[in-house]
């Protein structure tokens, strides 16, 4: 019997949180054919932001990386809620990362590795993905990081 994505999460000491309810006029997940899009997720822990503020100011890159990892954990909770089983993920196609940061902050890629590394740890080679990382002046609720995703499912 092969190891499942949930088994891999457990081996990392992680469990899926409750999928967050959208706070505006959008849905958390949309599936069309075999593609599943997950709306941007924040670094929530038990419904509260892990940190607030901007990278390059009050948020150090290591805390930003932890926040990106939490964002992906919340993305995975949305996948589980949408399709019922992370084992149905065939491929992580793309991750999009948004970093609230000061104009001189340049460590976006290192911060986003928090999400990317977790995707690979959970899905193996199928977790390797295309991605974008973008610095922005602010994010909802003063979150430092937000991550969105596109999955191939079957």
UniProtKB/TrEMBL annotation:
The Endoribonuclease L-PSP/chorismate mutase-like domain, residue ranges: 8-144
SUPFAM superfamilies: YjgF-like
Gene3D superfamilies referenced in this protein's UniProt entry, alphabetically: RutC-like
Matching CDD domains: YjgF_YER057c_UK114_like_1
InterPro entries per the UniProt record, alphabetical: Endoribo_LPSP/chorism_mut-like (IPR013813), RutC-like_sf (IPR035959)
Pfam families assigned to the protein according to its UniProt record, in alphabetical order: YjgF_endoribonc
Name this polypeptide is given: RidA family protein
Species of the source: Brytella acorum
């Amino acid at each position: 019997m092969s190891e499942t994505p949930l088994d891999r999460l457990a081996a990392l000491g992680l469990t899926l949180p409750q999928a967050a309810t959208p706070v505006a006029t959008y849905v958390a997940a949309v599936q069309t054919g075999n593609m599943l899009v997950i709306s941007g997720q924040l670094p929530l822990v038990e419904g509260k932001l892990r940190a607030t503020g901007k990278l390059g100011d009050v948020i150090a890159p290591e805390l930003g990386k932890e926040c990106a990892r939490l964002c992906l954990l919340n993305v995975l909770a949305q996948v589980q809620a949408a399709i019922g089983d992370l084992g149905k993920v065939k491929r992580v196609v793309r991750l999009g990362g948004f970093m609230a940061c000061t104009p001189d902050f340049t460590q976006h890629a290192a911060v986003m590795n928090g999400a990317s590394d977790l995707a690979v740890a959970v899905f193996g080679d199928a977790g390797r993905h295309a991605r974008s990382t973008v610095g922005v002046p602010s994010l909802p609720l003063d979150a430092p990081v937000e991550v969105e995703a596109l999955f191939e499912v079957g």
